[in-house]
Write a structure and sequence with these properties.
The complex is a heterodimer of chains A (162) and B (145).
Chain A: H1 2-15, E1 28-30, E2 36-38, E3 46-52, H2 57-73, E4 83-89, H3 94-103, E5 109-111, H4 120-124, E6 132-136, E7 142-145, H5 149-160
Parallel strand pairs in A: 3-4, 4-5
Antiparallel strand pairs in A: 1-2, 3-6, 6-7
Chain B: H1 2-23, E1 34-36, H2 37-45, E2 53-56, E3 67-68, H3 75-86, E4 94-97, H4 109-118, E5 124-128, H5 133-138
Parallel strand pairs in B: 1-5, 2-3, 2-4, 4-5
The chains are: A alpha/beta (162), B alpha/beta (145).
Chain lengths: 162, 145
């Protein structure tokens, strides 16, 4: 029985699509201006897919840190803007989303279907709680799951150095 | 000597009462006012059941038949809730829910539940959403708007 349970757990773990080494599922959602942006359009760059919302206090607190990270790595020069943040908001009301983007001067990609927790992307990416993120290499493969702070900075730097 | 002993006793008493206060952070609701999600889903799905007034005080009215007030952390929404409640019988069952985040991180449920308590609603309930509305309501397949 124990073996059965273990096998079951193992199978459940194997079913997860969001883990290191797997290709990141496509995201195609509208930006604030209404233009649809595909995650796959960012291939060739190291991409941080940041799931957040203006109603999520820890997510909002993290935005200035992401801004620092973005300014540090998304710059011209040797690395020719090889880093991008793909922000996916689980907001439900556009004004609240827009206000937060303005307040934190977020200048990276922002998309949302304004469907809160009913957004299909929350299911595809198996999101259980916010904030949540995945780090992708230049081919769109997941190389990090839910990294924050110094750990995230280290991972981005290492990936850009490859 | 006796004075010092009394002082020490008083000091330790203060410490003990402070720590017990910190441990039991007072919430505006009681355990019996928390409604399990399965119970609300059963009420919604039962055509013969008397329906409570279900009010969303979070980012979106996800639950079937619920009315949208908006996040309880915003004063304008608390005013909206107050207006809505003023038209209701205080003995009607009212269920408030948010579901953005776990209770300890939710900024919306406390201001809203404090208001409904203050208004004297005898059957005020808070939907027990320990994680969020996706995990505790959408994923189990409960009815959505």
């Amino acid at each position: 029985m124990v073996f059965g349970l273990l096998a079951g757990l193992n199978a459940a773990a194997q079913e997860s699509a969001i883990q290191i080494g797997k290709k990141a599922p496509e995201i195609l959602l509208p930006s604030i201006t209404g233009q649809s942006i595909a995650l796959s359009s960012q291939k060739g760059k190291v991409v941080l897919v940041d799931f957040w919302a203006s109603w999520c206090a820890p997510c909002v607190e993290e935005q200035p840190e992401l801004k620092k990270l973005y300014n540090q790595f998304n710059k011209s020069g040797k690395r020719e803007k090889n880093f991008e943040i793909f922000g996916v908001s689980l907001d439900s009301k556009k004004p609240a989303w827009e206000k937060a983007v303005r307040k934190y001067k977020i200048n990276w990609i922002q998309v949302s279907d304004l469907k809160f927790w009913t957004s299909p992307v929350a299911k595809t990416y198996e999101i259980e709680a916010l904030p949540f993120n995945v780090l992708l290499d230049k081919t769109g493969t997941i190389v990090g799951v839910n990294l924050h702070g110094a750990e995230l900075e280290k991972a981005v730097s290492a990936e850009l150095g490859k | 000597m006796k004075n010092i002993k009394n002082l020490l006793l008083l000091f330790s008493f203060i410490l003990v009462s402070l720590s017990s206060q910190a441990q039991t952070k007072e919430e505006p609701w009681t355990e019996s006012q928390l409604m399990p999600t399965s119970e609300l889903a059963a009420l919604i799905n039962d055509p013969s059941a008397k329906k409570p007034l279900i009010i969303n005080i979070g980012p979106q009215a996800v639950i079937k038949g619920s009315v949208d007030v908006g996040p309880g952390k915003e004063k304008d929404n608390i005013k909206k809730l107050e207006k809505m409640l003023s038209k209701e019988d205080k003995n009607r069952e009212v269920v408030l829910y948010c579901g953005c985040c776990p209770f300890d991180k939710c900024p919306n449920i406390r201001p809203a539940f404090s208001l409904i308590k203050e208004k004297g609603f005898t059957k005020a309930k808070l939907l027990d959403v320990p994680k969020n509305i996706k995990t505790n309501w959408i994923d189990p397949g409960y009815p959505v708007n």
